[in-house]
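PROTEIN–LIGAND DATA SHEET

This sheet pairs a single protein chain with one bound small molecule, zinc ion, given as SMILES. Inputs appear in the order they were entered. The predicted three-dimensional arrangement of chain and ligand is reported afterwards as a token string under its own label.
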Amino acid sequence: MWEGSGNNYAYLVTDEKTKNAVIIDPANPPEVLPVLKQKTESGDIKLQSIINTHHHHDHAGGNGEILKHYKLPIIGGKDCAHRTETPSHNSTFTVGDSIKVTALHTPCHTQDSICYLFEDGNDKAVFTGDTLFIGGCGRFFEGTAEEMHKALNETLAALPDDTRVYPGHEYTKGNVKFGIKVMQSEPIKKLQSFAEKHKETQGKFTIGDEKLHNVFMRLDDPAVQKATGKSKPVDVMAALREMKNNS
Ligand SMILES: [Zn+2]
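PREDICTION REPORTED AS:
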């Protein structure tokens, strides 16, 4: 959505068997509603709920307008507009018969940030909002370096390495431009060349990839410690964010 300015992503996820579906962060109804209308009317989807990753307007700001067209529960953090339900950390719910969703609380960018792990058999995807981006992370608007360290390097790092990452924005080009100044490893060079060739990078990388090419998930890397002049993980995290903000 808002291609060229916000470069936000909304995601529609459907259980193939039952057609039950959820729409994640449908913040710009003029772009989202026609898709929902077409797919609902053709019988491709049965909308079950709206899911929000956090309360910011470019993620949860479309809820009111979507509700005018579809009467849906809204699953999201405490500050999300029209929220009806906030799943507790590590709690699960299902989409149709096959998809299991686990809510992972990752406060920092906002205190109500939640990432959602979707599992269907062996397929795993995590929707990370503005907490984890491909090659980067969100700003610490409502939280601390300690909280982002926990969100990325404990909560999300604990997911299986083959979990695909679907972030809230297409920020990869900018992230890699910063990251490559911090470390010049093979994985980050690979990410740079991918970002140069592809406009969209969502779902193309995994948690395992992020552990290799994302500087915010490599706080123990000597190159990252050298670039920040820090060694304690929380201090490295704080310094990296500060450097990125000023880059
Ligand atoms: Zn945000």
